[in-house]
Specification:
The protein is about 40% helix and about 25% strand. With about 200 residues, the protein is an alpha/beta fold. The chain has one domain (about 5-199): 3-Layer(aba) Sandwich (Rossmann fold). A 7-stranded mixed sheet has the order 3-2-1-4-5-7-6, with helices on both faces. Helix 1 (about 5-35) runs parallel beside helix 2 and helix 3 packs across helix 5 (about 170-175). The structure holds S-adenosylmethionine. S-adenosylmethionine (SAM) binds near residues 7, 65, 70, 91 and 92.
Length: about 200
């Protein structure tokens, strides 16, 4: 089953499933990560649109996702927001010209995109040279016990949800050609991190 079909299947309960993490951590992290953004912003894997309320005024936001059902939820959230455009699109094949956006944002997406380096290369391509990428992601820890556990449960989590819990996301960002400027550990040592990078 494709990742898009999996998210189509859980779109109706996604916000409910995510609610405890949203309440305890994500909403605060989202607000902090998006503070200060301005200009043309591309959000890749916009999902049900949970970040939309946190973009500062002055942001012109384009959100893409390849799950139509997740986008339906995002469209409801975006009602009345005239600075938001939502499009069905694959992160690995972004349909924008080079150097289009001032910022690219992903939150909890690079764990489920089938080829994260390919998607990251696309994000780098559409970013302006002076632009910036902001990511909130969970990834493989540098702690040996945590990474052992992540490796252990990864096959089961992939089978059930399509999500990879042991991706080396900071390394993938660098492999895609970005210069990492900031990595902030957020939760469970360095499993959840905020990353800011330049193309
Ligand atoms: C865990 S959800 C996160 C949603 C949202 N960013 C958030 O913070 O709540 C991952 C999202 O990435 C989307 N996604 C996964 N692979 C994708 C791809 N190749 N192209 C576009 N979207 C993708 C999924 O459809 C899903 O909506």
């Amino acid at each position: 089953m494709s990742v898009a079909s999996k998210y189509d299947g859980i779109a109706y309960v996604y916000d409910l499933m995510d609610w405890p993490m949203e309440f305890l951590f994500y909403s605060r992290w989202r607000k902090e990560a998006l503070l200060g953004l301005k200009g043309r912003v591309l959000e890749v894997g916009v999902g049900t649109g949970k970040n939309l309320e946190y973009y500062p005024q002055g942001c012109l936001v384009t959100g893409i996702d390849n799950s139509e059902r997740m986008l339906e939820k995002a469209r409801k959230r975006a009602e009345g927001m005239n600075n938001v455009t939502l499009l069905l699109m694959d992160a690995e094949h972004l349909e924008f010209p080079d150097n289009t956006f001032d910022y690219v944002v992903t939150t909890f997406v690079l764990c489920s995109v089938p080829d994260p380096v390919k998607a990251l290369k696309e994000m780098r391509r559409v970013l302006k040279p002076e632009g910036e990428m902001v990511n909130l992601e969970h990834m493989r820890s540098s702690n040996r016990l945590l990474s052992w556990y992540e490796d252990l449960i990864n096959p089961l989590i992939i089978a059930v949800t399509g999500i990879h819990v042991n991706r080396k996301t900071v390394e993938n960002i660098e492999i895609a050609g970005f210069r990492v400027k900031e990595v902030k550990n957020l939760l469970i040592k360095d499993v959840f991190r905020k990353v800011r990078s330049k193309p």
